[in-house]
Amino acid sequence: MAQLAKGTTKPVYLITGDQPYLTQRLKQAFMNLIPDSERTMNYASYDMESTPLAQALNDAMSAPFFGEKRLVFIDRAYFLTTETHRGNKIDHDIDGLLSYLAHPEPTSIVVFFATSGKLDSRKKVVKTIKKSAEVISLEAVGERQIRSLVERNLQQDHFTIQSEALNLLLQRTGTDLSLIMNELPKLKLASAESKQIEAPVVAELVSKSLDQNVFDLVNDVMGKRIEAALNLYRQLILTKEEPLRINAVLVSQFRLLIQTKILTRNGYSQGSIASALKVHPYRVKLAMQSVRQLELNHLRRAYLGLIQIERSLKSTSQEPMMLFELFMLKYLDEVA
Q1: pLDDT at 294
Q2: Do you know which SUPFAM superfamilies this protein is assigned to (predicted)?
Q3: I need a labelling partner for 229 at 20 to 30 A (CA). Which of 4, 74, 278, 305 fits?
Q4: Rounded to 5 degrees, what angle do the CA atoms 65, 68, 72 make?
Q5: Who contacts 227 (Cβ-Cβ below 8 Å, separation ≥6)?
Q6: How large is the average pLDDT for residues 215-226?
Q7: How do residues 73-90 score in pLDDT, each as one tens digit?
């Protein structure tokens, strides 16, 4: 973005990584290269799930109209990834793309967005574009970076946020940067007079994600707080969350706790665990805090009990609430 602000550009860019907030900021930075008065003629965006690639390439090969640069966005470039197109089959001109990459138009800036799925490095076109384009990988943003981005955003409007409030915001959103940035406008509005965002405002305005609710549910289960666990599970069912989805997130969370417990015993750090398990470092941080007081055998029993719930949900018509109650009673009996 600093390079783009200086007007330093390359003919072709490839943006990867599922980070909507950062993707949108990058798009705006590219857009700023084209003066407002020229955008009608010198900017175009093409969705590869509905438009043939050849149409975008034809545009890219055209000279800019009364301007210095032409900007072409190629969105949802699924043909570069392992994903397949689910709609009507579109015949994309991959050979034409290979020819363009060999001799890109110097007055055009072509930006491919392959932000869903993984790049398929087996494909010739992917190998070629990696060599020809400026590749920008938008990886998961770390907790420290998120805190910095939030504080910077708030400072621009002369706001501050309490440390406790920021911690709660991260917990409620699961450190999803896009979710956090979407929540900030209403937090600013609610704190317009004081210009300081406090924890009670975050608690009132930012809803817990399913992951956060499940995190609390896991703590209730492992803390043997049967009434609290049942009440929270009941609330999730009443808010129309699918029982199978709730259970899947529970299984995933217990699997993470077990893996974290084992890896911590073997001397792994937070960063190395996150890297090994390919999960966000903030999730690992919370897991490491949780497993300190937990027995591995108890975690294993809870995990196996949830696997049994999953089987029952898929193969029987038993009530999910009853299955969870039975799971809690059996778990408490086993670890008593």
Answers
A1: 87
A2: P-loop containing nucleoside triphosphate hydrolases, post-AAA+ oligomerization domain-like
A3: 278
A4: 70
A5: none
A6: 90
A7: 999 999 999 887 666 678
Smallest Cα–Cα separation from 332: which of 221, 207, 214? 221
Q: Which two tokens stand for residue 313?
A: 């949900």
Looking at residues 272-282, what average pLDDT do you find?
A: 88
What's the CATH number of domain 210-335, 3.40.190.10, 2.20.25.90, 1.20.272.10, 2.40.128.600? 1.20.272.10
Domain extents for the chain?
A: 10-137, 143-205, 210-335
Q: Which two tokens stand for residue 64?
A: 């800019």
pLDDT digits (tens, 9 = 90+) for 107-120: 999 999 998 888 99
Instruction: State the Cα–Cα distance between residues 188 and 334, nearest whole angstrom.
Output: 48
Residue 157 has pLDDT above 90, yes or no: yes
Q: What is the pLDDT of residues 134-148, one digit of tens each?
A: 999 987 778 888 999
Query: Which CATH number fits the domain 10-137, given the four candidates 3.40.50.1000, 3.40.50.300, 1.20.1290.10, 3.40.50.720?
Result: 3.40.50.300
Structure tokens at 52: 């043939």
Distances (CA, A) of 119 to 20, 30, 84, 113, 130: 17, 22, 12, 11, 10
